């Protein structure tokens, strides 16, 4: 599989049914009656299609990846160009465009094809990282003219790509109407990625970064997600993702609105420090988000248009997310749209043809025999050729950029940018200035004009901020390029803070952050903090997937104040009505000036509530996150307690410790609990405040798995095919199934409720992800495909000790491992000598051998009803 998050909650993910898609399409595919879907290319041409992109003129570029997410041998990937000459929905011709391993994202713009892929050493055959590259086909023969040109190098963690494959690496790419390429980064993160200007960037964890098409100006857009595979970008530059996050009890899908500079919190803030993050808009249960697209094409039915479309590999479903404006953000309602087995990606061309790729059971390491591409069009669709923009007149390009097709607008915009002449500039400006045109058209014109004229656009963009309709977008464009940010006036942004539109206010705060002028700190400090800015109660999980429009503006203001390094202004504000926002921002200010200033504020204050908040802030500053060097990764089930993953002391730590101890002494025995709780919550590890850890012991049943699997009942005496055919006809009794779940040893490794201690793969949601047939096959063939995080791990440790099991918890200091008998071992990280991931499932084959068909059907029915 591709990155896919490998996020299924079950212990295996089986192939989607027993019948081949192309032989039985009516069984495997479900789509709305308003659409016509045709089989475009099969596994003989497009096995294991990890990603695709479509040229405006309809040529389909497919990234074939027979390495998958867990494969490690190079030479199994390439980009294919597929052509439908007669426009009947079936491929007529294919060309090998370029050879690349692990293609993860594709963008087609004119003769240029941008590709994100894994790189390998020719000598060692080992992965060396991931690059964003561009190929060019100037002679139009369908093949790249020469070698790739790197735009960004080392944009993922090479160490873990070598050890694991690309399951948490960097993935999909998409261009916005603003001309930036947006890149989805998995939580491998990256260290010292370098763009064409030589700029280096490091990111611990996942999020979205962006870069100009020439490979310059690389920067972080948002941070704090687990496994974003792709982004959907609407005409107003709203960015949406369907990513997932490890809650410790399965991998839940989240739908998020990404707001520039936002922190989304994975893994250290999203459970216990949710007051500090931008929450997702929805937690949708188990799944694996993959490709994404914002559909905005005029010939699509209105009910399926102007919406983010999000693929979910785990659920084999393309979803529509209907978003509704909510202040500076949105709320959403998702609905099933098109069902395809292990769908991976989607894209649309200039005539409204939607193409979708499906993995179709190709396995985590890819397959030469599985996978395909389909085409979907509205029933009343008729082919209309999209013009060759290279040959198009200015008049034609003007028509295209004014159209109600997002594909046409982006294509025309980029062609005008390439032409870079007086006619192109005049066209873009005229479109942006014409108040009779639709807003999305004017935005396209404005961003095109800004790309063409760069620094010279500033005066005009300032004028556009006076246009109420265009104000939000003009502010974004003004602050969009840091290369000449020092020339941009501050006044439009300060004026925007007073606007009645919360979206304009948000754009103003983000813009002030990017302008980088510390003198605006006092203005930003006036941003109101809502009552929802409340830390979760001890032992509870915060609302990390509940829309909270009120938190957006103060969150953005805090990110700006931190980036502006406004320590003096923040310390001064602690004494004012803006103390809450100031102390929130000071949590991230690891400077001795901040520490000493907080202590001084504490000593001068008589407000006990304020003094307590200062102590909380000092506790947060006691440690900081270690600088990321890509030698480690937190794994698939990381410690999510927070506020740091690998915390280290720094120069301010002794000052804080001394002060806290002094204050604790003054508080006496009665007040000590505050410091004990602060020590535990902030994980300061100050011995004087330590509380003896109480480990709850539960007596679990001892299961003799060897005895179970050696019994030969009806299942053990039959072929898998016969068993599957038999139970397909039997409903079974879920109450009996629950008892069998216990007696067959399932309980040793699986929990059914999040209130239980998490063990192996969580079974409480399996029915929402897998159908009965899939569940049955996964029981019978546990090694067919091992769920992420639950491969057997062999650990050798000091003292000649060896452990084998799966990891249930991992922090910077320890690993907690559970073996097949249900025994739990805690191993200090410093004691681990070696660690190896095995290629087999922890679950032995044959655990269902002793069952009758009826009993297995009952177990399967019981599991299929687990949909919490």
Concise description?
InterPro entries: 6-blade_b-propeller_TolB-like, ARM-like, ARM-type_fold, Cyt_c-like_dom, Cyt_c-like_dom_sf, DUF7133, Haem-bd_dom_put, Quinoprot_gluc/sorb_DH_b-prop. The protein is 27% helix and 25% strand.
Summarize the SSE layout with pairings.
Elements: H1 25-28, E1 35-41, E2 49-54, E3 60-65, E4 77-83, E5 93-98, E6 101-109, E7 112-120, E8 127-136, E9 149-153, H2 158-164, E10 170-175, E11 181-185, E12 190-195, E13 200-203, E14 206-211, E15 219-225, E16 232-233, E17 239-246, E18 251-258, E19 282-286, E20 289-295, E21 307-312, E22 317-326, E23 329-339, E24 343-348, E25 354-358, E26 372-378, H3 394-401, H4 406-419, H5 422-433, H6 439-453, H7 458-464, H8 471-478, H9 491-496, H10 502-515, H11 521-524, H12 549-563, H13 567-573, H14 579-586, H15 592-604, H16 608-621, E27 624-625, E28 647-648, H17 653-682, H18 705-710, H19 720-727, H20 734-743, H21 766-769, H22 772-780, E29 791-797, E30 801-810, E31 814-818, E32 824-828, E33 832-841, H23 853-864
Antiparallel strand pairs: 1-26, 2-3, 3-4, 4-5, 6-7, 7-8, 8-9, 9-12, 10-11, 11-14, 12-13, 14-15, 16-17, 17-18, 18-19, 20-21, 21-22, 22-23, 24-25, 25-26, 27-28, 29-30, 29-33, 30-31, 31-32
Helix pairs in contact: 3-4, 4-6, 5-6, 6-8, 7-8, 8-10, 10-12, 12-14, 13-14, 14-16, 15-16, 16-17, 20-23, 22-23
């Amino acid at each position: 599989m591709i990155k896919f998050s490998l996020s299924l909650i079950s212990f295996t993910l089986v192939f989607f049914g027993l019948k081949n898609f192309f032989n039985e399409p009516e069984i495997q595919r479900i789509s709305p009656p308003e659409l016509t879907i045709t089989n475009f290319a099969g596994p003989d041409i497009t096995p294991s299609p990890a990603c695709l992109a479509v040229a405006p003129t309809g040529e389909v570029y497919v990234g074939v990846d027979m390495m998958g997410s867990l494969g490690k041998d190079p030479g199994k990937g390439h980009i294919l160009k597929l052509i439908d000459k007669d426009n009947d929905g079936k491929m007529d011709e294919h060309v090998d465009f370029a050879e690349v391993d692990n293609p993860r994202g594709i963008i087609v713009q004119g003769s240029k094809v941008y590709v994100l892929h894994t790189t390998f050493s020719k000598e060692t055959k080992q992965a060396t990282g991931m690059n964003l590259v561009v190929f060019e086909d100037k002679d139009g023969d369908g093949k790249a003219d020469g070698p790739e040109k790197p735009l960004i190098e080392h944009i993922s963690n090479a160490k873990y790509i070598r050890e694991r494959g690309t399951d948490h690496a960097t993935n999909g790419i998409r261009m916005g109407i603003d001309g930036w390429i947006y890149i989805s980064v998995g939580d491998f993160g990256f260290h010292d990625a370098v763009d064409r200007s030589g700029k280096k960037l490091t990111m611990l964890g996942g999020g979205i970064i962006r870069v100009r098409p020439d490979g310059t100006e690389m920067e972080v857009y948002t941070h704090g997600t687990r496994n974003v595979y792709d982004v959907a970008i609407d005409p107003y530059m709203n960015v949406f993702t369907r990513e997932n996050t490890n809650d410790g009890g399965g991998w839940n899908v989240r739908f998020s609105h990404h707001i520039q500079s936002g922190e989304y919190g994975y893994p250290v803030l999203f459970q216990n420090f949710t007051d500090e993050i931008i929450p997702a808009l929805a937690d949708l249960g188990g799944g694996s988000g993959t490709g994404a697209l914002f559909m905005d094409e005029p010939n699509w039915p209105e009910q399926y248009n102007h919406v983010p479309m999000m693929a979910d590999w785990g659920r084999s479903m393309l979803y529509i997310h209907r978003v509704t404006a909510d202040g500076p953000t949105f709320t959403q309602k998702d609905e099933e749209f098109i069902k395809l087995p292990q769908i991976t990606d989607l894209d649309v061309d200039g005539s409204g043809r939607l193409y979708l790729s499906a993995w179709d059971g190709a396995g985590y390491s890819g397959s030469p025999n599985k996978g395909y591409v389909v085409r979907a069009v509205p029933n009343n669709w008729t082919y209309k050729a999209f013009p060759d923009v290279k040959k198009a007149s200015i008049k034609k390009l003007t028509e295209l950029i004014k159209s109600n097709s997002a594909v046409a607008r982006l294509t025309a915009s980029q062609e005008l940018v390439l032409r870079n002449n007086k006619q192109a500039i005049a066209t873009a400006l005229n479109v942006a200035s014409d108040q009779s045109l639709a807003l999305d058209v004017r935005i396209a014109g404005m961003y095109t004009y800004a790309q063409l004229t760069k620094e010279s656009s500033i005066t005009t963009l300032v004028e556009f901020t006076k246009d109420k309709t265009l104000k939000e977008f003009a502010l974004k464009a003004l602050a969009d390029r840091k290369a000449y940010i020092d020339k941009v006036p501050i006044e439009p942004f300060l004026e925007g803070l007073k606007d009645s539109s919360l979206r304009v206010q948000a754009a103003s705060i983000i813009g002030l952050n990017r302008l980088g002028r510390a003198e605006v700190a006092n203005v930003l400090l006036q941003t109101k903090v809502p009552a929802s800015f409340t830390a979760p109660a001890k032992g509870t999980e915060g609302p990390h997937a509940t829309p909270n429009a009120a938190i957006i503006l103060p969150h953005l203001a805090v990110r700006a104040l931190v980036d502006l390094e406004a320590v003096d202004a923040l310390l001064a504000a602690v004494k004012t009505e803006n103390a809450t926002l100031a102390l929130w921002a000071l949590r991230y200010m690891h400077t001795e000036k901040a520490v000493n200033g907080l202590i001084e504020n504490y000593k001068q204050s008589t407000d006990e509530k304020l003094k307590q908040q200062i102590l909380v802030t000092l506790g947060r500053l006691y440690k900081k996150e270690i600088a990321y060097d890509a030698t480690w990764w937190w794994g698939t089930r990381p410690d999510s307690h927070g506020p740091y993953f690998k915390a280290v002391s720094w120069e301010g730590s002794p000052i804080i410790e001394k002060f806290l101890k002094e204050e604790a002494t003054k508080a006496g025995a009665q007040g000590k609990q505050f410091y004990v709780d602060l020590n535990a919550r902030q994980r300061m590890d100050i011995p004087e405040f330590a509380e003896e850890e109480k480990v709850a012991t539960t007596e679990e049943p001892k299961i003799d798995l060897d005895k179970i699997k050696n019994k030969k009942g009806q299942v053990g005496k039959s072929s898998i095919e016969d068993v599957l055919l038999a139970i397909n006809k039997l409903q079974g009794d879920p109450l009996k199934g629950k008892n069998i779940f216990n007696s067959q040893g399932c309980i040793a490794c699986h929990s059914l409720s999040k209130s239980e201690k998490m063990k192996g793969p969580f079974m409480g949601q399996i029915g929402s992800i897998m159908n009965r047939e899939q569940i049955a096959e996964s029981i019978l063939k546990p090694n067919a495909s091992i769920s992420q995080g639950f491969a057997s791990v062999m650990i050798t440790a000091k003292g000649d000790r060896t452990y084998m099991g799966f990891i249930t918890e991992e922090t910077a200091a320890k690993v907690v491992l559970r073996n097949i008998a249900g025994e739990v071992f805690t191993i200090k990280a410093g004691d681990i000598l070696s660690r190896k991931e095995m290629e087999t499932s922890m679950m032995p084959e044959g655990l269902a051998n002793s069952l009758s068909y009826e009993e297995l059907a009952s177990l399967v029915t019981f599991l299929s009803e687990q949909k919490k």
